Every structure is written in C-alpha cells, then in structure tokens.
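Action item from last meeting closed. Structure (419 res):
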C-alpha cells in the first residue's frame, strides 16, 4: 500500500533532500556567467540617451574652458580689495561680455565692466556685484574687504581637459548630454541595443482580442514583459505564443535564436509533464533548473539555445514579473553593456501584519501611503491586479519574521528597479 506524505499545504516547502538556491547565490551566478552580448557603435549626442557607454569617455575641453564671471559687475585685481576702507577705481573703456571677450589688459588699480559668463580679461581675477557699486561712468566706488577671486569661476573647476567624464557601462541620461556637450563631445561610443524576445507557452493561452472558451485564459505575461523590456530600454521582440508541443516550441526557439540576443519565456519552466521548455533546454545539455528560495517564483530555468541565453520564467504573472525584475533585469543590463545594478531600497514603517516562515526571500507588492508601506491584501501569484496597485516591492529576508505595524521593512520602489 502506498503511504502518502505528510500534508504540508505549502507548495514552497523544501522538498526532502533538496537544497534550494538562495537569492544572492542565484544573482552571483548570473553576474558571473552572463557577459556583454552586443557590439559597440557610435551615435550622435541626441541619439545616445538610454544607451550604455561602450568605453570610458574623456573631456576634449575643460569646463569652464576659461575663467569667467559668475555675475554682472566690475572686474579688477583682487589684491586691492583686502582692506575695509572704500575703494574708488578708475573705469576703463570697454567691457567684457559672454562671447565678446575684452581683448586688452586691465591695469592694476583700474576696473572694467564684466557681464555674467564673460571670460575674465587679463589683469582681472575678482568681480564686485554691480548692485554693490556706485559709478559715474568714469569711476566705480565700493566697500571692501572683498575676497580675492570672488564671483568668478576658475578654468576647469568642474572638469579638466583629458579627465574621464563617465565610465564604461554608464546608462546615458538626459543630464549626461549636457555634460558631454560642455566638454566638446559630439559623438558617443555606445553599445548597440540588446534585442530581447518574449515567448509565452501553453495551450490555454489566447490573445486579449479573441473570444475565450472554457479553459482558456488571456495571455497577460507577454504584453507585460514586452512593456517592461521597452521601459528598460531594450529592443523587445514579440515572439508570440507556443502550444504545448515540443516540435513547435523547438521551431519557435530556433527562429528566436536567429534574431534575438536573449530570450524570455514564461510557463513550462518547472519539471512537470507539460513543462516542455525545461525539457528542451535540458536536451541541449545547457539547462539548469534553479529552485530559487524566493516567493513569488521558485522555478527559474536557465539555458542556452543555439548559444542564446534563455530565461524560463514562471507562468503565473506576478511570479513572472518579480523574477524578471529581480533576476532577469540586472542580467539583461550586464548583457547590454551596463554595470550590474543593485536596486536602492529604504527602510519604512510597515502598515501591515505578516508572519513569515524561514528559508526563502519574499517580495510583497507594496506602496507607500502617509509615510507607511502597505502590502497588497493577497500574496497569490496569480493576482495580477496587485501589480497595478503596487508602487514597489517589500523585500523580506530568508529568516523567519513576524512583522507588526510600525516595524521597519525594506521597500524597493519600481523606479529603483528601472520599471
């Protein structure tokens, strides 16, 4: 007679004799195994936002390129202004303005009108504000003392010519465009866009535009993952959906490997009878089924198909989203030529109760209201509405925990994950 196992009523309970992989181990392995998969190119400044620098970038010119005035005022030799007595200086003819430098030299003991941004004329190293000056057009009078160098900017005080401006792997922002332009960089060496394909698997899946029969469900993962990839800045390729048929799935993987740098699949990532994705990856000899100690998630199939990395994600939408955000996203960034990102979270008082078992790391859909972090009412990984409700994730460590309102928890906003 067959003896049934004890009832655990916990699909995440550790199977007898199986050691699950900690989250940090999984991340470290991904960081070690997956390297940049794209070539380098050069783009004009305005087209470089969102790309990763393919090499260190050096300033062609100092910023500022010359000493200049930070204010509208009058310039003179600042060694004269270390006394508290009023100063009266003769005003020489002419002026220095931005783009219209004064060509002569200002004698010591004289002053000249200098406007904001103007290159400092020879003999000038200090500016007095025009509001602090009395003038009759022939002389200027003002009170000292005035610190030598006051109201001026030194040449190269921000960036020196030849200095490394930004390092390889940097994801270029709009602010970086201004930085590059300020030091004479018009064309930027960047990595080509990472091409990531998304494939859903399962006989039960249909498109949202179709009429659903009994037993069929709409494919939520593919549009969600495609949007997530585009938000991260990659070239997302819709690979459609594959039925639970090994031959057809193989053909679609072959097609994907010909046009994608990386493939994300959802569903079929475990070890069941219809988990054909795991079986096919296993047939290549490259498949690793990682039972990661994480909730939601757990099965994460990793493999190579014709040399192309494949992430086999769970089929449940919340698990697919979380596994992509936590595991796939940093790996994709590294394969796209960027550095390995570490999301920045912060400690916030909880507004919920939670009793957690030991052994796995958990991510709760969460949002902040009135200085406290709320958790979505259900932890079910099929409750996709919780992702729309949430603004980030609460991360709970592997240890057992009992959380009460007011206890501090780690909150990671979606934007810290690039989402």
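Sequence:
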């Amino acid at each position: 007679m067959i003896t049934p196992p004890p009832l655990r009523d916990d699909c995440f309970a550790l199977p007898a004799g199986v050691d699950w992989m900690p989250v940090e181990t999984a991340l470290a392995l991904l960081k070690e195994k997956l390297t940049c998969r794209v070539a380098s190119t050069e783009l004009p400044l305005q087209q470089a936002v969102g790309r990763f620098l393919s090499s260190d970038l050096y300033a062609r010119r100092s910023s500022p390129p010359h000493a200049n005035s930070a204010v509208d005022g009058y310039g003179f030799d600042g060694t004269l202004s270390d006394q508290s007595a009023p100063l009266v200086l003769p005003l020489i003819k002419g002026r220095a303005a931005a783009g219209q430098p004064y060509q002569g030299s200002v004698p010591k003991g004289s002053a000249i009108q200098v406007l904001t941004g103007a290159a400092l004329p020879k003999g000038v190293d200090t500016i007095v504000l025009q509001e602090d000056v009395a003038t009759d057009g022939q002389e200027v009078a003002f009170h000292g003392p005035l610190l030598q160098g006051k109201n001026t900017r030194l040449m190269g005080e921000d960036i020196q010519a030849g200095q490394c401006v930004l390092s390889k792997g940097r994801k270029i922002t709009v602010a970086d465009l201004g930085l590059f332009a300020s030091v004479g960089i018009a064309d930027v060496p960047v990595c080509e866009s990472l091409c990531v394909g998304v494939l859903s698997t399962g006989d039960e899946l249909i498109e949202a535009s179709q009429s659903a029969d009994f037993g069929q469900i709409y494919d939520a993962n593919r549009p969600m993952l495609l949007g997530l990839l585009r938000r991260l800045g990659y070239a997302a390729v819709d690979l459609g959906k594959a039925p639970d048929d090994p031959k057809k799935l193989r053909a679609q993987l072959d097609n994907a490997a010909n046009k994608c740098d990386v493939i994300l699949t959802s569903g079929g990532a475990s070890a069941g009878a219809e988990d054909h994705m795991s079986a096919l990856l296993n047939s290549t000899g490259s498949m690793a089924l990682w039972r990661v100690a994480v909730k939601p998630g757990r099965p994460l199939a990793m493999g190579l198909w014709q040399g192309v990395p494949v992430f086999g994600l769970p089929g449940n939408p919340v698990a697919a989203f979380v596994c992509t955000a936590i595991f796939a996203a940093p790996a994709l960034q590294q394969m796209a030529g960027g550095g390995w990102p570490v999301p920045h979270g912060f400690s916030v008082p909880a507004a919920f109760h939670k009793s957690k078992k030991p052994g796995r790391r958990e991510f709760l859909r969460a949002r902040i209201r009135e200085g406290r972090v709320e958790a979505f009412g259900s932890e079910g990984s099929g409750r996709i509405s919780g992702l729309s409700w949430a603004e980030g994730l609460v991360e709970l460590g592997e240890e057992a925990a009992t959380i009460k309102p007011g206890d501090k928890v780690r909150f990671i906003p979606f934007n810290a994950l690039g989402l």
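Note appended to the action item: Residues 317-335 form the longest helix (19 residues).
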